[in-house]
Amino acid sequence: MPPHICFATPDDCARAFYEAFARAEIDAVMVVWAEDEEICCVHPAAAPLYGYAAVRAAWDAIFRNSVKMRVELSDEHWSHTIGMATQTAIEWIFVGEEPQARGPVFVTNTFLRAPQGWRLLSHHASPIQTGLAQGLSAAVLH
Questions:
Q1: Where in the sequence is the domain holding 67, given as residue range(s)?
Q2: What's the confidence (pLDDT) of residue 140?
């Protein structure tokens, strides 16, 4: 994807992110991110990464050291304001040719409306309880 691409909606940006992830294309993944030192990415069970360079390095390492993966989302919810949008969902991660998904992982993606269109500001993925059937969410109160 060219770096000048304009995402008209947060959903367009999210879709481009997950499609690029499935293709393991670092440049396409990074096109969806805001070019800002304020961006933050938290991979499951990992420390937060701040800034464009750190986020890019982490995704690059994932793509270089892993087989291709794709993500299916379930229980997706959106919250919109004038200049920001938040997507929450459960990610089911398919690794290589494995027929069974890994996960579940709860994800929160925050999008910012920038002059060049919608961009990803924050991606936070966190493992959740095992034994959750794909497509079903469970309410856990603490």
A1: 10-127
A2: 46
